[in-house]
Design goal:
This protein has 4 helices and 14 strands. By secondary structure, the protein is mainly beta. A 12-stranded antiparallel β-barrel has the order 1-2-3-4-5-8-9-10-11-12-13-14. Residues about 1-40 have low confidence and may be disordered.
């Protein structure tokens, strides 16, 4: 039986509000699960994956798009390098506690729909771009039992002052055997005033250029989401995954004029090969 490795139960993505490369989506939690499960008998492994995701053009958009999700991960002991978290190290203790630190990359957001890397839409025309930034993520989690785990993250920008984000999440393993794994999850994200205003606020200049009314978001919870993740092992190397995620935007940010829809679903399908 494949055992859960707490290092990989970190959905994130980031992502979302401090937008990382489009591969940093919830479903990649499932690919990482495959990689670490297959690596149980090996000191290192490499995973290559490809998927497709149907999601809003940006957080709060009422327009959807489908895009490809390439994925890469290398692991060696506690070290890892992947398109979800970047470069980092994580250590698991015998009591179920785990700690990690990673350096990653946020691609920001554009005010047009022409970028294949950044989230964005022509709806945001005049809002200007949110610059890309290097980020660092500190993680602390605990598997209370083999079927329920808790995790917290602190995400900070290193190269651009975009504010701080804090996440808290719970993962419940509903089913896990040699072939199939089903995980339910819930996550809340909290941003400080700088962070929430970067992604949801409208300042004087942006208001003049875009026509949106001024808006100050302030600090607080900026999203809550619920996910169902399923993984199927076709062989020791090949796996497939599916992810459905429902996200809601609380009052702190859903009153922003750039938010056209304050709840939405995200669908992801893909496959991965680990060697």
């Amino acid at each position: 039986m494949h055992t859960l490795n707490p290092i990989v139960v970190s959905i994130i993505d980031p992502g979302s509000f401090m937008k990382e490369i489009k591969t940093t989506v919830a479903a990649l939690f499932i690919i990482s699960f495959s990689a670490h499960a297959a690596a149980e008998n090996s000191s290192s492994s490499i995973t290559l994956g490809l998927g497709a995701q149907y999601a809003p053009k940006y957080t709060g958009s009422d327009k959807y798009e489908t895009h490809a999700l390439p994925y890469f991960e290398w692991t060696s002991g506690g070290w890892f390098l992947n398109t979800e978290k970047g470069l980092g190290y994580s250590h698991q203790f015998d009591n179920g506690l785990y700690l990690g630190q990673a350096i990653g990359y946020s691609t920001g957001r554009t005010d047009s729909g022409n970028s294949w890397i950044q989230d964005g839409s022509d709806t945001l025309k005049g809002m200007g771009k949110i610059d890309p930034a290097m980020t660092t993520t500190a993680t602390m989690g605990w598997w209370a039992t083999p079927w329920i785990g808790f995790e917290g993250n602190i995400i900070a920008p290193l190269t651009d002052s975009q504010g701080m984000q804090y996440t808290g999440k719970v993962n419940i393993v509903a089913f896990n055997n040699d072939i199939d794994t089903l995980v339910f999850s819930s996550e809340a994200k909290y941003g400080d005033a700088r962070f929430n205003n970067t992604w949801f606020g409208v300042n004087d200049k942006q208001s003049v250029n875009s026509g949106f009314r001024k808006y100050s978001a302030g600090s607080g919870i900026n999203s809550i989401d619920y996910g169902i993740n399923w993984q199927h092992m076709f062989s020791n190397n090949w796996s497939g995954y599916a992810d459905v995620r429902y996200t809601t935007l609380p009052n702190r940010v859903n009153n922003s004029p750039i938010v056209k829809k304050d709840d939405y679903f995200t669908f992801t399908l893909g496959a991965a090969y680990t060697f």
